[in-house]
Write a structure and sequence with these properties.
With 437 residues, the protein is of the alpha+beta class. The chain has nine helices and four strands. This is Outer membrane protein, heavy metal efflux system.
Amino acid sequence: MEISLHRLVNTSWPHEGGIPFHRILALLGFLAGLGLWLAPSWAGVEPLTESQVIGLFYARNLSILSAELGLETAQAQKVIAAAIPNPELSIYQQEWAPNYPVWQNGPATYVAVSQLIETAGKRRLRMENSLLGEQAVESELRDVIRTLTQALRRAYYGLLLAQETMDAALEQSRHVQRLVEVQQKRFEVGDISERDLTRIKIEALKAQSDIDKIAAQLVAARSQLAVFLAWPDDAGNLSVKDQWPDGKSFEDLKDEMAAVNAALERRPDLLAAKTRYAQAKQGIDLAKAQRIPDIKVTAGFAHDLGNYIQNGATLGLSIPLPLFYRQEGEIAQAGIRANDNELRVRQTEVAVRSEVNTAFAAWISANTVVKRFETEIMQKAKHIRDSAEIAYTNGSTDIIDLIQAQRDYRNTIMDYYQAQANRAYAYADLKMAIGAE
């Protein structure tokens, strides 16, 4: 697998609300596997669904892989924090001399083992601090996934808009071309003037120009989505399924306050900020614990033939005396870091509320516009176009009204698909704002 998300599945994240972190990573691993399975033959077979594109994205995106390395670093830091100091073995001799009063005498030999004993729960505090650090990195990884997925969705909907616009332009061109053929026959029998026929032909040429313009937009949209997928082979044939988001996942959000409350529970960036604050506060306790000196205990064996007791045990105790410095600087720095992280929590909460309010209002507005198009505008625009064609055929209106009706219908179709895209963009933005998985 190109990204080793499967190694993260056993990690748990006890956050308030939302989906447990190990379930999220398991889902990402499944989507990554799905992306790898699709990668060799995804292009040119069937249009990709949104979930398939996300699977390819998780399998191939380098930014997610980079963020995962940060989590592995935090996990390594946990191992470092839990480490117990190694004992120290020392062997030394003393009383070396060229001659000894008694020839059997020689230098004294000492063998000792020293062990540093950490006091004041320093090791426990380090382990707790590193665990909080790992949890913060987990939330930061989830936040990277959140923001990148939102950008991916917008690129996906951008390509879908280009495809829908192209289909509408082709259909409009075919419709105008059929109208040209009908009016050509009427011209041949003298029912309309050459000027009217020429105007309709010009309208057909404009419809073809729209196709050429949209074709360039389609290429640009494919390229934008291909960038997120690390530019896979045959990216020029990339297409997505004709399926706009319906917003059913927002049915439980009755108002802005419900959306804000959901975001305050789910947003990984806010969870990360709170965890960093807890880690910084715990760092104060760790800094204060450093004021209490550690103890080094030494035990050993002495062999001294020149001594009255030739073989004996040794025992020593070493304790630093904190007379001149008691970690005042480190404690002050830890307090400053805690205050800074508390400020970041407040700033993040304000940003979350602002983003959710903006995204929720945009979603309500965009959703209302699409529903108005579907229930009222589209039917009326088609009726006006068809009525103008019938009226012109019967001679009850002129060519200007017919051409204007064609243009109005074409513009309405384009506005409708743009409204669909705007709603999809608002959908992606709101999902990101509330931290929905």
